[in-house]
Design brief:
Elements: E1 9-16, E2 19-26, H1 31-44, H2 50-55, H3 63-71, H4 107-119, H5 144-155, E3 166-172, H6 177-193, E4 198-203, H7 213-217, E5 221-227
Antiparallel strand pairs: 1-2, 3-5, 4-5
Length: about 230
């Protein structure tokens, strides 16, 4: 997430943790220099790191401004409502992206992504059984409020601050308690060896009513692994 560039910033670069950073001080005469440096950093993604942001509180951009810079549009020029380009259509499996240009998390983004998956069903491979395909899914950011509620419900714990914990979706061989126990033991041992804390496991509820027999025969047991 990026913020804006304020007017009148004197910039000097230095290296922090292997990255080039800019220290800033008020000076109307050097604002042109800062405005030349910042777009280049925005284009490389350098100013997205927390250590960089902490060094330059007045040198930030909104997501819209970064898109303007990368697209060559002027700051006050309206952004397109979509980045879809029909000339980029190909005949292979489909991949789509749905995002908020204002970097605001919302359920609407997930609902739109779900609708996109439905409309791309023609891109998925299917076997002789129409209910058996090659699968589809979503990759999205950590739903912090949801995971907190589920951790409290399943494990009776309060999760650490956002960004201080992780949740893994783990797939296990089905209907084999001994193998499940052994697999969990390996994961927990490796987690502790790396200095992380094991918070617990949560079985994931699933709806497999629409699956064909082939995927049902190989459906794994899915659990979420909470670590901090």
């Amino acid at each position: 997430m990026l913020s804006r560039l304020s007017t009148g910033v004197r910039s000097s670069s230095r290296t922090i943790g292997g990255r080039t950073a800019i220290s800033s001080s008020s000076s109307a005469s050097s604002s042109r220099s800062a405005s030349r440096i910042a777009p280049r950093l925005a284009a490389t993604g350098a100013i997205t790191t927390p250590i960089f942001r902490s060094q330059i509180p007045s040198l930030f951009y909104t997501t819209e401004r970064v898109l303007n810079l990368r697209s060559g549009k002027k700051e006050n020029e309206a952004l397109p409502k979509t980045v879809y380009d029909p000339s980029r259509e190909t005949e292979n499996c489909g991949v789509g992206l749905v995002a908020s240009l204002k970097s605001v998390a919302s359920r609407k983004v997930v609902e739109d992504a779900d609708e996109m998956l439905i409309r791309m069903s023609h891109r998925g491979g299917v076997g002789c059984c129409p209910a058996s395909g090659d699968g589809a899914g979503m990759l999205f950011g950590m739903p912090d409020a949801f995971m907190r509620a589920k951790a409290k419900e399943a494990l009776g714990i309060d999760l650490p601050a956002k960004g201080e914990y992780a949740v893994a979706n783990v797939f296990f061989p089905p209907e084999n308690p001994d193998v499940l126990k052994d697999c969990k033991a390996v994961l927990e041992r490796l987690t502790k060896q790396r200095g992380l804390e094991v918070l617990g496991w949560r079985p994931v509820p699933v709806d497999n009513s629409m699956l064909g027999q082939d995927p049902l025969d190989s459906e794994p047991d899915t659990e979420q692994f909470f670590v901090a």
